[in-house]
Write a structure and sequence with these properties.
Pfam families: Sdh_cyt. The chain is mainly α. Helices cover 61% and strands 3% of the residues. The protein has a two-stranded antiparallel sheet with strand order 1-2. The termini are far apart. The protein binds protoporphyrin IX containing FE.
Length: 159
């Protein structure tokens, strides 16, 4: 980062002259993966706008809106295959989009090979854990588990 005489602050382009030659990286070798990743960010971003704003509208504004959100509300939504698939696609796209965005930031700003490898390993492990757990929750969620103690289950299960 450098400050010019008129106090404007400018940030150097990533991977520009600031990097020591000992951390120089060779270009290429990845086919068109980076181009596809660039395209994925645009396509997933456009789809996420529809998924996220519909999600917010249905959960927070329709009917009693935010006041209706509780355990039973979520149970009711996930009883419908439409909302299961909606939430699944939203989870996967948001996670892959966010993970790829952070991957690019790490590639741009972490100079040492070991730093990049460490940060990206943590990123990928965290993403896989969240995607797998989230997917399992959406499809295995049972609001009224058989055999659960009566004081542990929701009122509507007893009816
Ligand atoms: C509302 C829908 C969204 C749209 C339209 C959108 C759009 C975009 C686009 C076009 C980029 C690429 C920017 C570039 O290459 O310069 C981007 C980057 C990124 N997005 Fe999203 N995004 C959305 C939602 C999300 C969500 C939900 C997350 C987090 C899970 C997220 C995390 C990121 C990150 C970390 C980057 C990299 C930032 C960067 O390059 O500076 N985005 N987004």
């Amino acid at each position: 980062m450098s400050t010019s005489t008129n106090e404007a602050v400018s940030v150097e382009a990533p991977r520009s002259g600031r990097i020591s030659p000992k951390y120089a990286r060779t270009a290429g070798g990845k086919g068109n993966f980076e181009m596809l990743a660039w395209l994925f960010m645009r396509v997933s971003g456009a789809i996420l706008i529809v998924l996220i704003f519909t999600h917010l509208f249905v959960n927070l504004m329709v009917g009693d809106g935010i006041h209706a959100v509780d355990f039973g509300f979520v149970a009711g939504k996930w009883a419908s295959p439409l909302w299961q698939v909606w939430d699944l696609v939203m989870l996967w796209l948001a996670m892959l989009h966010g993970t790829n965005g952070v991957r690019v930031i790490i590639n741009d700003y972490a100079d040492k090979n070991t730093t990049r490898m460490t940060l990206k390993s943590i990123l990928y492990i965290a993403s896989v854990v969240i995607i797998v757990l989230g997917t399992l929750v959406i499809f295995t969620f049972d609001p009224c588990p058989a055999g659960a103690p009566a004081d542990m289950i929701a009122d509507f299960c007893k009816a």
